[in-house]
From TrEMBL:
Source species of the chain: Sulfitobacter indolifex HEL-45
Keywords recorded for this protein, A-Z: Signal
Gene3D superfamilies (UniProt xref): Glucose Permease (Domain IIA) (2.70.70.10)
All copies of domain M23ase beta-sheet core, residue ranges: 62-176
Pfam families named among the record's database cross-references: Peptidase_M23 (PF01551)
Signal peptide: 1-19
PANTHER family: L-ALA--D-GLU ENDOPEPTIDASE (PTHR21666:SF289), PEPTIDASE-RELATED (PTHR21666)
InterPro entries: Cell_wall_metabolism_enzyme (IPR050570), Dup_hybrid_motif (IPR011055), M23ase_b-sheet_dom (IPR016047)
Lipid metabolism in keyword set: no
Keyword 4Fe-4S appears in the UniProt entry: no
Entry protein name: Peptidase, M23/M37 family protein
Length: 317
């Protein structure tokens, strides 16, 4: 399919822009904090250091967009629609790139399968990493806000399934969370969202249960957790899957059952990680685990403050 140079990721510095001509709708069929999350914001630091629009580090050097991530590959395979955040004319389309291809195969095509939309009055939106074969728009097509343009994928330079949404005004990248260029220590004076997504400096993607410590590949695939476990399970394990963690963050894991707390532990994160998981477990000490409902809680703390918490349940029978 036709694909124009407009789909190349632009890494120039951001500048202020007027907001009266454009307001963005949420671009995915998902609910933030439940079945999707913002993995990375735009980088506002012109040096090799990084800083998102709220003075935190949920970004990476030179990142000129917002990454909306799915929890796992299973969610990607099930299909999550990407919708036009603003209407306009399609001016660039690419499809056919494999999801999860090695980086050596995506040189010069880091956006992967994607779409660029000319929103008028100098505005342009770009959608990257869409799932192969999912695109539903064509070059030159006029589309309205909310129209489906494809599905979230992992094509191009993408380590996990997500949508990279970037916004430009007269060719310059603009952060829709802070279009007015507010000092990051303060609330942004101007956003370009119809309903601004709440800021979270990191958080939890999932809490799950197993009878052994799962592999990271199984967690990322979405097939690690179990809803039921047998009473003769060799062990009871709880894991927390997190994003945007920083050094010295604490992941507090707790598993309790019909007879009280089975295991609990504070795990200290030893370095910043875009995504990671930690697990704790207890081997069976008697002939069987008490049957019933078990509750697991994963809490992410930073400098003593809770920044996210998730609960889950597993039935032992």
């Amino acid at each position: 399919m036709i694909y124009r140079a407009a789909l190349a990721l632009i890494l120039s510095s951001a500048g202020p822009a007027l907001a009266e001509d454009l307001q963005l709708a949420f671009p995915l069929d998902c609910t933030l904090g439940q079945d999707c999350h913002i993995q990375q914001y735009m980088d506002h630091d012109p040096s090799s250091a990084v800083q998102d629009y709220r003075c935190s580090g949920l970004t990476y050097d030179g990142h000129k967009g917002t990454d909306f991530a799915l929890p796992d590959l299973a969610a990607m395979e099930a299909g999550v629609s990407v919708r036009a955040a603003a209407g306009g004319m399609v001016k660039g389309v690419r499809d056919g790139m494999e999801d999860g291809a090695p980086l050596s195969q995506v040189q010069g095509r880091e956006c992967g399968n994607g779409v660029v939309i000319d929103n008028g009055k100098g505005w342009e939106t770009q959608y990257c990493h869409l799932k192969r074969g999912s695109l539903r728009v064509t070059d030159g097509q006029q589309i309205a806000e909310g129209d489906v343009i494809g599905q979230v994928g992992q094509s191009g330079r993408a380590a996990f399934p997500h949508l990279h949404l970037s916004l430009r005004h007269n060719g310059e990248p603009v952060d829709p969370f802070d279009a007015g260029g507010t000092d990051c220590a303060a609330e942004p004076s101007e956003t370009l969202w119809q309903d601004t997504p709440p800021y979270r400096p990191g958080g939890l993607i999932a809490v799950g249960f197993a009878d052994h410590v799962p592999t990271y590949a199984a967690i990322k695939a979405g097939d690690a957790g179990r809803e039921t476990l047998p009473t003769d399970a060799a062990a009871l394990v709880i894991y927390g899957y997190s994003y945007g963690t920083q050094k010295d963050d604490i992941l507090r894991l707790r598993l309790s059952g019909p007879k009280g707390v089975v295991i609990e532990k504070d795990v200290v994160m030893d370095k910043p990680q875009a995504q990671s998981f930690r697990a704790i477990g207890k081997r069976m000490a008697s002939r069987e685990w008490p049957p019933g409902r078990y509750t697991g809680t994963a809490t992410l703390l930073r400098a003593g403050r809770v920044i996210d918490e998730r609960n889950g349940f597993v039935t032992v029978r």
